[in-house]
Amino acid sequence: MCYACVPWQSAARGTWLTHLPHLVLPPLLGAAPHSRARQAIAGFVSGIYKATAAFQQVDPSLPPLWQAITKLDKAGVEAAIRAGADLNARNAAGDTPLLYIAREGHYKFPPKDIPLALIQAGADLEAKDRDGKTALDVALLSGWQNIAELLIKSKAQTGGVAAIKGAVTCPDCKRIIAQYAL
């Protein structure tokens, strides 16, 4: 299985989106990370996620911040932040919002959207998941280079990257590791 399938399978949960990387990534793998083609596809896929999230049933017992994150609702996230939401509250899987976003990726959560709002509000960049990995580690291992780069630029600690960089398979994440000498 190629590196692109793993995050897509968890995000797409067996839908046709599972196969999207095979349809669009091969011609783009040689393209620059910030090329117009990649940006257009990212915008298209993000739009699909947001449109489908609007119809998703959300567990009403979740705190408002987690409800908004589940619905990909930036305004809801911002309202929860203003209301004093715990930015590091963990979900049933043990993830904080940033860890969850690092797993789900930059198509579902464009970096300048919900992730940036959480970081600017003071979310813990160093919170660890059940395996002891930070959001930066998770983003790099999951192939979400845009989330990883946002975390690095937001001053996430990078010392743990040395322990996982041999397991990173995404070419863009490898480029980021080299670019920032991690």
Helix/strand layout:
Layout: H1 5-12, H2 20-28, H3 36-53, H4 64-70, H5 74-82, H6 97-104, H7 114-120, H8 135-142, H9 145-153, H10 161-164, H11 171-179
Low-confidence stretches: 1-19, 26-30
Protein structure class: mainly alpha
Give the name of the CATH superfamily.
Answer: Ankyrin repeat-containing domain
Task: Return the CATH topology.
Answer: Serine Threonine Protein Phosphatase 5, Tetratricopeptide repeat
Please identify the top-level CATH class: Mainly Alpha
Task: Based on Cα principal axes, name the global outline.
Answer: globular
Q: Main β-sheet: number of strands, strand sense, barrel status?
A: none
Assembly state = single chain
Number of helices: 11
The tally of structural domains comes to: 1
> Could you give the order of the helices and strands?
HHHHHHHHHHH
What's the architecture, going by CATH?
Answer: Alpha Horseshoe
**Percent helix among the residues?**
40-55%
What Rg is obtained from the alpha carbons, in whole angstroms? 16 Å
Instruction: Estimate the mean pLDDT confidence.
Output: 82
Strand content: under 5%
Number of strands: 0
Descriptive report:
By secondary structure, this protein is mostly helical. It has a single domain, classed as Ankyrin repeat-containing domain (Serine Threonine Protein Phosphatase 5, Tetratricopeptide repeat, Alpha Horseshoe), CATH 1.25.40.20. It has 11 helices and no strands. It has helices at residues 5-12, 20-28, 36-53, 64-70, 74-82, 97-104, 114-120, 135-142, 145-153, 161-164, 171-179. The longest helix has 18 residues, at 36-53. Mean pLDDT is 82; it is low at 1-19 and 26-30.
